[in-house]
Amino acid sequence: MSKQAPVLNKERRFPTNMKCAHELLLMAKNGTKGNSKGDRYAMPAYNVTTYQGIDAAIEAAETLGGSCLLAFSNSALKHFGKGDAIRGLEFVHEYVKLAARYSSVPIATHLDHGDYIGADGRKVVQKAVETLTSVMADNSTDHAAKKPTELAQNIEATREVVDMAHPLGISVEGELGVLAGVEDEDTQSEFSTYTDPEELKTFLKDTGVLMLAPTIGTMHGPNKGKPGDVVKLNIELANECLAIADAMNPDILFVAHGASTLYPNVVDFACENLSGLGKLEEEINTWKNFVGTDWDQITGLIKNGFVKINTDTENRQTYLAALIGALNNSASKIDIRHYEKVTYKALVQSYIQKYIMAGNVGVWHGPKIDVKNFKFDLNA
Ligand SMILES: [Zn+2]
Questions:
Q1: For residue 63, is it within any domain?
Q2: Predicted TM-score (pTM) of this structure
Q3: Residue 187 maps to which CATH number?
Q4: Is 234 strand, coil or helix?
Q5: HSE value, Cβ hemisphere, 13 Å, CA-based, for 320
Q6: Residues identified as active-site
Q7: Is 230 contained in some domain?
């Protein structure tokens, strides 16, 4: 590829309180909060699938004065659009734009795992460039053929997205290597490959992406290993990749996919209430057997330069645990709002907990709660 990739247009102005994801993430990498610079922190990217989830993620960010990054997968967009991802983009675009107007913190919107290989995927990515503030061009896998793409094909497809998005001020996240596991029905893989550092140089140079998801051993989904396992990440490889990228352009940001950890209190809460509902041992064991990434390793990644941390599973679990608890307490309360309030409150807590863990606190204004004494409690 001879011609230079277009740089990200940083002059683009988005609707009130909406920002390009790269801008907020670069602040995290540089430790920028208000007018001061401190320790590096990270931004959890929450995969939202409902309007309730959008509201909860924004409320959590406002509670802490942190930045908000909402990620939408293809299947989530189909859900928003009654089966049509393009329509889903239109709905969330209008909804988030309005929510942002009332928000005390900036919000970025991001397409998760946009596929620019398949014809349908291309249309979704194109529409996302028009409606969101950031997109992921995940071309490391040919999902139709169920195999990894060749480097050249990944580069070509990703570069096309950068050519389209960067001049409009929309950041692009590329993926190099294939992540194993099941993210949702549209993103799953039975195989995985680590990122090759040599390929990384070529990929970054030729595509011009400023956000990169390398494969370093994280996995999608709620079962990241056998019960009792500690998921081992390849930190050495992660650091090697970071050093390469930093030397090329310090504005390049790294993204950890499959970084969901588990909240043991949520699992306990769910198991207790499932017992209360007289559920079978089998169902309870499913909860007990979930395995996440352990947070200590994620903390290490953040320190070294991973600033976008994708999480989903623990928030879904929190929602479900809260719903199980509500049903165990009273399954005869005929009021949709009651169950919505219970699950909403739980989601907000789940999001707050992860923001605190990532250090995404006091970026835009002081937190509205006593962060040190925050207690994530589904009984509260
Ligand atoms: Zn992912």
A1: yes
A2: 0.94
A3: 3.20.20.70
A4: coil
A5: 14
A6: 112
A7: yes
